[in-house]
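Progress against Task 2.4 (sequence-to-structure conversion) is shown through the following example record, which the project officer requested during the mid-term review.
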Amino acid sequence: MRAPRFWGDPPARPGLAARLLAPLAALWTSVTRRRLARGAAVRVGVPVICVGNLTAGGAGKTPTVIALLGRLAARGIDAHVVTRGHGGSLARGDRPPVRVDERRHRAEEVGDEPLLLAAFGPVWVGRDRAAAARAAAVAGAQAVVMDDGLQNPGLAKDLAIVVVDAGFGFGNGRVMPAGPLREPVADGLARAGLVLAIGTPGECARFRAAWPAVAALPVAEARLAPLETGMDWAGLRALAFAGIGRPEKFFATLRAVGAEVVAARSFGDHEPFEPRVLARLAAEARGLGAQLVTTEKDAARLPAAFRPRVLVLPVRLELVDPAPLDAALAAIGLGTPAG
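Structure tokens generated for the chain above:
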């Protein structure tokens, strides 16, 4: 989803577009509240950590899930991921949950994020998140990490982490379609146990100042840092392309490691890469004398035959201070690092 320009306005008196869309935003809020209040959430016998956000578009949930899997593994905890599998054919209708096999499944079957996450731990895809979590528990999961689903009422959550792109914050503070929010900030924070702000120190400071309501919760700060792979990016002429929530952040990261981004092409989040699109990208790169570069998540959607032609710049979440997250994990019985 490409965000309208006014979605990024700081919290203030709403502009004309937001005011005109306010009735639809009120309807969206009403429907969301009714859905969240409906029925009793299912418990599956193991702690459930939800990594979610309040806004439409990318906030950094996938790197957060990867980091969580690592921290839980350091505690000797076998954590499984449960996810919707956006765009995957195996998560449609009433199909039973599927455990992702990165050697066999494709992105069009299970979704790009599950395919990426499967390299870091067991991943279950299903439209019914409670059924997927039960399947994980039966398979031996000692904890479940729910990728997205803060607004999903079916599965009880022991810890809900609200992930925020600190540079964007909560946009203009309005609910869709008047703004980027899936629900009002106060509603979402009331169900959260931790806020994870991802950005530079300056962005995190401005986010805290603009949204004082987050001070009622523990706040952890982090940044997304390029993973050292031995690749020398300095001076590389790159045609960068990305279909993530905020492609411009990827392009900025690529420039920051020294690459010369001679062209940048943005696609919709999770948008499939059709053969004609890939052919066009390859032809443009040849014409510019540039190397194709993309994100890990986008690479998961590339056909196997095309992947060798594309370099990937992976990023990982680095916590400024892990204490708030570690305290939140300990509070739900997930202890301290082993050894």
